[in-house]
Design goal:
Strand content: 5-15%
Strand order of the largest sheet: 1-2-3
Order of helices and strands: HHEEEHH
Low-confidence stretches: none
Distance between the termini: 29 Å
Number of strands: 3
Number of helices: 4
Length: 94
């Protein structure tokens, strides 16, 4: 792994299940943006700079702006994001 070769300890490297930060956006927000159910969010497709779901295609920056505009402290975060990034960071700084 390239990061290991740079001296980063294996235990602090987050390896995501899928390639694309968009897969880590909260399902409730994506469902609202794409007009679908939260279960349909698993069908999210990323190709180049476009993100598509339920017949709607947005550029990555457009989607990011829509997600950030809706994000607040009560938004449920995806388990993968919590377990691989948020919780380890919280433990490291507490």
């Amino acid at each position: 792994m390239k990061l290991q070769g740079m001296g980063i300890p294996v235990g602090i490297i987050a390896i995501w299940d899928r390639n694309g930060i968009e897969y880590l956006y909260p399902a409730s927000l994506l469902a609202n943006i794409f007009g679908c159910s939260e279960s349909q969010v698993e069908q999210l497709e990323i190709a180049e700079d476009n993100v598509s779901l339920n017949g709607v295609t947005l550029r990555k920056l457009e989607l990011q702006a829509k997600v950030v505009a809706q994000l607040n402290e009560s938004t449920p975060l995806p388990e993968e994001l919590l377990s691989k990034l948020i919780n380890p960071l919280a433990s490291a700084i507490s």
